Amino acid sequence: FREDFYYDDTAGYFVLGGSGYVNGIEAFFGPVKYYRLNVLETEQISNPLHDKEAMEQIELYYERCMDIQEIVYEYRYIVKQGEKAQRSCYYENYYLELIHKYGEKSKCDAFMWGREVREKYHSLFKLLQEMDFSAPDVLEDGSDTALEVGQRIFEKVAKSLSSADGLSNMGSSVPLLVDSSCCGYHKASYFLAVIFETGLGVPVDRAKGLLYSLIGAQGNERLAVMNLGYKHYQGINNYPLDLELSYAYYSNIAIKTSLDQHTIKGEQAFVETIRLMDDELLKAQTKENGDVFMWLKHEATRGNAAAQQRLAQMLFWGQQGVAKNPEAAIEWYAKGATETEDPVLIYDYAIVLFKGQGVKKNTKLALELMKKAAAKGLPQAVNGLGWYYHNFRRDYRKAAKQWLIAEELGNPDASYNLGVLYLDGIYPGVSGRNQTVAAHYFYKAAQGGHIEGTLRCSLYYITGNMEDFPRDPEKAVIWAKHIAEKNGYLGHVIRKALNAYLELSWHEALLHYVLAAETGIEVSQSNLAHICEERPDLARKYLATDCVWRYYNFSVSQVNAPSFAYLKMGDFYYYGYQNQSKDLELSMRMYAQAALEGDSQGFFNLALVIEDGNSIPSYILDHLGIDQTLHSSNTSLLQELYYRCWNNSNQESISPCSLALLYFYMRVFWNNILQSTLIYFMGTFLVSILVAFAVQYFQSLSAHNSPVTRSEPLSDEPSSSGNRNEDATRLVQQDESTFSSDLAQQEPNPQNPLVRS
């Protein structure tokens, strides 16, 4: 804003970014601080996103877009004028009239633009010449012309980038994507944001990444809004950490997700958590001509209710690799509802008849089917009866009765609906609104995965204006993010990435997984890191960022991170990864988190850390719930870790954990035996030495006091004293050496009586 503005907020709830009652501001603005009781001077006000380079990029973008839009509208006007002139002509014969009617459509060959402009926008002019401006879907005022041109350009670029060597064309594709964005087709804007932020085939440019993220979000592109929400949630890529702003973006898409699910139009698919490391799930993916689909179709034709139900779900939501086809799905719902007694099929068909989704509405038949399914005890059908009484009959007493029954059966839709009755003040027998009770029901619905219930609770957490919901911006963001990531348009991009991977179309898979991962959805982040590990040559060539490190790092920052991502990052910190330094404590934290997720490998790795001579900090052991009395003993810790490793692994078969535990117990047993034997051996050795010295001492003492006595028994004849003394001395020495030699031979033998004494 070029000047300060003031607003009297005492009359109600004021939202600068727009609300359900006030239109938002169509502009670029960043985090806003709202001072209610004092006013700041202009020089005291700052905007974290108010960057000179970013402002220059915005200015250049709109200058280029003005040129492109002007060319598109003027070109269309010239072609239309030419058609009018031709229609007013009198055709000399029937042949010329047929040429005009069925021949090549009008186009402009004589350009009114100069050579410089034609060369600058050569691709745009070429595409304009290929377009048919007489098509009935193009409005007379030309309002859809630019959007259609933008879509044509984008589809052409997307097809090129998805080819076998498509990412090598990125340099020539970027200007075309800019043209598409300028024409108002903001899928191109999000492509550009991701391309510049990650350096996908081009140098990293954070300013342009921010520019196209904002433009895409302003153009209501779902993935661009989620990208902004994620970046502000994590504070990455120089985006300021701002939970309130992140919530604003995520809640925007969360609301649209609820609406998008009731719209069968557009490129949407069910968001499925399929990991590229899960071979079983990958094998289950199919297409309309795949073995799995054909088998289900065969079983469904034979009247198998489970096959009919699964087939209909796959077609209605676009699951398991099957293209979304609501019309075909409804045929299976109808077949199953009429031919079988399966309550789920009866209920599903009743719902589409009530709403008229892909079929003509038939309330009478729908009600009959709903009652039939409810009579079989299906909770969602009981809830459906309440919905009928609420929406068609306005009989809130009957509606509440059915919803109470369904809620007791565990149906989250019923919990939410009861909350709405209390919130609107129309609960039978209760006067006025009761927001506290309503919030209780909304929370219960959210715990069951209900989309609108989760949205309500996230709003309570961001505002903190409910007694049982203290203000918690982070929790509000997590809940809104959870719903936003169910959006069908995001699901479509993820599905394209998975299909490309299964078909070994590496360039297309890398492109679409990057697009999905930058929105902040965890499964695509870990899948992208896996692809970069599988094809490091591709990642190094086309991504300026370290793909493996970046996306595994993103993955472990999520609340729903898989254990294998923690193990990967733990290994990177423990052993070091390329230019990243080692961090022993961080590696142990990662292993501990994997262990808390129930992964036996986490406990195994922590045990190996101790085996390598390292100690685990007490706070990590406390986090694992290990008794503090075990902290000081490495042996006790190893026993506990190996036992937990074994306890969390498959106990029915031999696993590394069971072998490690067995080896540990064998080492402990052997060390105990070895230790006791060694002590026994050393003790007897010392006693033997003491005995030897004692014998030597007494022998020498005896020889000194009575040498003749010792020599007398040797001979009856007298001898000279000198010779006899020498002989006696030699005899004592010989006796001593013999004793010492015998002792040396006997010492290793534990059965020797001397050693025992």
Automatic annotation (TrEMBL):
The gene is Sel1l3. InterPro entries: Sel-1L3, Sel1-like, TPR-like_helical_dom_sf. This is SE1L3 protein. Keywords: Membrane, Transmembrane, Transmembrane helix. Coiled coil: none annotated. It comes from Atlantisia rogersi. Residues 706-757 are annotated as: Disordered. It comes from the Eukaryota. The keyword tRNA-binding does not apply. Residues 731-757 have a biased composition (Polar residues). The chain crosses the membrane at residues 677-698.
